[in-house]
Every structure is written in structure tokens, then in C-alpha cells.
Amino acid sequence: MTADEQMRDVVIGALTEVAPEIDPAVIDPDTDLAEQLDIDSMDFLNVVVAIHERTGIEIPERDYPKLSTLSDAVAYLQAARAHAGA
Amino acid sequence: MPSLGADMEAGTLLEWYVKPGDVVKRGDIVALVDTSKAEIEVEIFVDGVIDELLVPAGTRVPVGTALATVRSAAQEPVPVAPDAVHGRAPPPLAATVSTPPVAPEPLRALVSRAAPPPPARPIEQDHRLRVSPLARREAEQLGVDLATVNGSGPEGAITRADVEGAAAASAATAPPPGPKPQPGQPPPVGAPADRQVAMREAIGALMARSKREIPHYYLQLEIDLGQALEWLHEANLARAVNNRLLPSALLLSAVARAIGEMPEMNGFWLDGAFQPGGGVHLGVAVSLRGGGLIAPALHNADQKSLDEIMAGVRDLVQRARAGRLRASEMSDPTITVTNLGERGVDLVHGVIYPPQVALVGFGAIRDRPWAADGMLGVRPTVIATLAADHRASDGHAGGRFLTLIDRQLQKPEDS
Q: Which CATH class for the B10-120+192-196 domain?
């Protein structure tokens, strides 16, 4: 499993924790997650918390827009992990 | 069977969490009940020992039906319907539910003891299984026994995909699974399979009643949130993800504090008269994925700090969407707040939940032109609306209420 795939699993794991009925297979990686999965600000906060629990990465509030799609989120988290020297 | 909202007429007992002989304390969760809207955890309102379970799992019974008998120390067993009232001491054994128009008569009805329907199936197996409501419904439709399904979700939660996988696997090795035969008994949990339909009907009936009976009046006020949001972002910088605040917590907190000065907005219209709510229990409208909505109560919101409100709402939303609300949360909101701004609309003209007398709505927080001190600027604002019952209050009071909410939002550090 590549690092990208691992991170993708982390994000999908966080999403399905918040919204258990999400079918990961239908997530379009380049469409806005909030729109396609009907996620509101409360759900999104819970996703950020779940990602933090899984990876230790703290996502500051101002960076939330950088996680609007699955692809963007994976890229952002990879960069954050690299930056942390992990 | 407690009334879990003014729109509920019957419920299906899904699971018992206790058995005869178990010692229970007031507030313990003893059963899981399916209404047309959600699966609700039902608390018991007395201390004692479970004597007999009168309603087997899988049975649908009307509101007011006794569910179990409880023996209190050295007493004869008495039938009780686990009660939905929160924070009030009901007279011993006389369960009263806080929405009197549909108040059950819990002491009546030693239901169907003559010919109890046979238990649907052993439920011990899926006791406390983590299953999303959608997956549970799917399992019922496909005839999949949840106890045989391996959950792939968090903490082994069973997802819809797991159920479908299990159904496909068993179809490959067995005859097609039809609906499970339930001789001599209606289908076990008929409601969930049609929950979408049932929920629409329930919402429709309640809202029709609201529009038929309640002379609504509507007010709106645009509120500058510049200071509040600045304060919030500043506060969040210093906070770990887990403790961050959302603007909706500030809005709820403002309503909870403002309503202290507006008791005529907080309560119920019953039998031709206003009855003040016992405490400030904010109904928080939560939209459910796949349609429908539910407005469980955030209890004693006026006494909660902003952090407590935030934690409380997070917990409520999560449990509402996972289908794990408690009975007390369903029965007694004293005023409802809806935050439709999440869906991008500017404002909402709310429909009051009977028998409540007011509903506060918030639209989207957006940058808008804002005139102040003779200057035109751009500020993040929200349009707050009030729908209120003209029998209980007048526009003058409603206007004051919205103004008080505005005032609260101008001093976020006090919230």
C-alpha cells in the first residue's frame, strides 16, 4: 500500500466514522466532500477530529478549505506529515 | 411506551438492555425503541428491580403501553412505562410525559398479557452491536441476521456494505433469503423498512397541525457577527481540534441566554393556555442524511457554558445521525432552534413544533454589506428569524427576543 493509499484510507475511515452509511466506492475524489456526502460543519469538525486521532496531525481551522475534496485532503495530509518529518 | 415527541403514536421495542432480576436506577437506559423517526434509547424513571418484561422485542405497541414491571424494594410489582421526563420528579409510578397532548396513560394497560406474542427471535446476539440504522434496515429487508455479519466500520460497526456483502455471500450458498417468516405476528420491525415514508408522514402530521392550530407571526433581524467570529477564531487558535468551537454553538448559547428574559417564548401552549417550560431545553433541529429531521433537546442550555453547549450539540448531532438518541431528549424541548444556514439559505421562516410556542431560525453566515456609523462596510452577518405563536406572545415581545439574541452575540466572551 502506498503512502497515498494509506492516507486515503485514513480520510475515508474518518468520513465513515462520522457518516457510517457512506459507501467509499462512490466518493468522487475531486468533488466537494461536504456537497456529495451531505456533510455540515459539525460533521466536518468530527472528521478533522477523527483524522487527528488516527494520524496525530492537527489541522488548523484556517486550513479547513484545503480539505474540501478527497484528493486535496490526501495531498494536504501527506504534506503535513512530510513537514512533521514523519 | 413513552411518547418520544408530539408526533409519535406508537413505537417498536427493538431490544431490551435489561432482564428480569436486574437492578435498575433512575436514568438507566433499559431499552431501545424504534419510532418512525429514529431508534431511541429509553431511560427508566424509578429505582428498583426489573420484575417482568411485558413487551417482547420486535413488538409494536401504542404510546402509553406498559413495557415492563419494576419491583421497588419489598413492594408488589407495578407496571411502568419508562418515562421520558427529564429533570422533573414524576410522582412515583405515575409516569407523566412532558408533552401532555399525547401523554400516555402508563398505568393502564397491562398489555396483552393474556396472549403475549412470541419473541421475534433471540436478541441477545445483536445486543449492543454497533449497527447504523441504514444497515439495520437493509438487514431486515434482505433477511440478514446481524449477528452473523462482520462489521468493517469503526470499532466493528456494521455498515450497509457489510450487510449487502453478507446477503450476497449467503445468496451464493443458500436459497434466496426471503423475509423471515414470523408466524402469528406482524413483521418484527415493520417501521424501519418504511421509515422514510413513516417519517414523512409523522413530520407532515405534526407540521399540518402546527399550521392549522398555531397563528404564527414572523420576525427577522440581521445580526453583525464580526466580533463574535473574530473572538471564535481567536479562541480556536489556542484549542486542540477536539475542543474547537463552531459558530452554531455561539448562536445556540445566545438564544439560551436571551430566553431567560423572555419566559413567554419558552414553553408550551396547552389546553388553551400557556404553560412555561420547566427549564430551558433547546430543541436542536438536526437534519438526517437521506431525508427527514429530528429536534432533540439540549437540556438546561441556559446553565451551560459555551464549551458545554458545544460538546452537548456535537454529541446530540452525532447520536441523532447514528440513531442513538435518548427518550428524555425526544420529549421535552421547550423551544426549537434551526440552523438552516448550513445549507446555504439566507433565512428560514420556521414552522413551530407543537405544543411549543416559538422557533428561532438562523440562515447562512455570509459577508454582506453593512452600514454602521455612517459608513458602508462588509461584515459577516446572519439573519435570525423568529416564528412565534400569537396566542402566547405579541410581535413586540418577539422583537425584543431577537434584539436580546443580537445583544448576546455582540459580547461573545460572556457566552
A: mainly beta
Is B10-120+192-196's fold the same as B215-414's? Answer: no
- B309 CA: distance to closest CA in chain A (Å): 13
Per the structure block, which three cell numbers stand in for B197?
415514508
Task: Looking at the complex, report in whole angstroms how far the Cα of residue A32 sits from the nearest Cα belonging to chain B.
Answer: 14
Per the CB < 8 A criterion, the answer to whether B387 and B358 are in contact is yes
Q: What is the ipTM for the molecules in this complex?
A: 0.81
Can you give the CATH number for the domain in which A61 is found? 1.10.1200.10
How many contacts, defined by CB atoms under 8 Å, are there between A and B? 63
Say whether pLDDT at B95 is over 60: no
Measure Cα distances from B321 to A43, B136, B300 in Å. 10, 14, 22
Q: Is the dihedral of CA B256, B262, B265, B269 positive or negative?
A: positive
**Total H helices, total E strands in chain A:** 4, 0
Short-list B99, B144, B131, CA closest to B270: B99
Judge whether B154 is closer than 8 Å to chain A, CB to CB.
Answer: yes
- Nearest Cα neighbor of A37 from A12, A60, A57 is A12
Q: What is the rounded CA–CA span in Å between residue B149 and residue B141?
A: 15
Residue B47: the pLDDT is 86
Segment (H or E) for B362:
strand B358-362
User: Facing residues of B325 across strands?
Assistant: B40
The domain segmentation of chain B, as residue ranges, is 10-120+192-196, 215-414
Q: Which residue of A has its CA nearest to B340?
A: A40
Q: Which domain holds residue A17?
A: 3-83
* Separation between Cα atoms, residue B108 and residue B91, nearest integer Å: 16
Picking from B153, B233, B342, the nearest residue to A40 by CB comes out as B342
Distance in angstroms (rounded) separating the CA atoms of residues B33 and B26: 18
* Cα→Cα distances B337→A68, B48, B156, B219, B248, Å: 27, 37, 34, 14, 10
Per-residue cell: B394: 405579541
Q: Whole-prediction pTM value?
A: 0.67
* pLDDT tens for each residue of B213-232: 999 999 999 999 999 999 99
Smallest Cα–Cα separation from B408: which of B228, B169, B152? Answer: B228
Residues in A touching B343 (Cβ below 8 Å): 40
CA distance B202 to B56: 25
Please determine, looking at this structure, whether the domain spanning B215-414 carries the CATH number 3.30.559.10: yes
Instruction: Note whether B101 and B354 are within 8 A (CB).
Output: yes
Question: Over the stretch B330-366, which tens digit does the pLDDT of each residue have?
Answer: 878 999 999 988 778 999 999 999 999 999 999 999 9
Q: HSE on the CB side for B98, CA within 13 Å?
A: 27
C-alpha cell at B226: 464580526
Task: Identify the pLDDT of residue B69.
Answer: 86
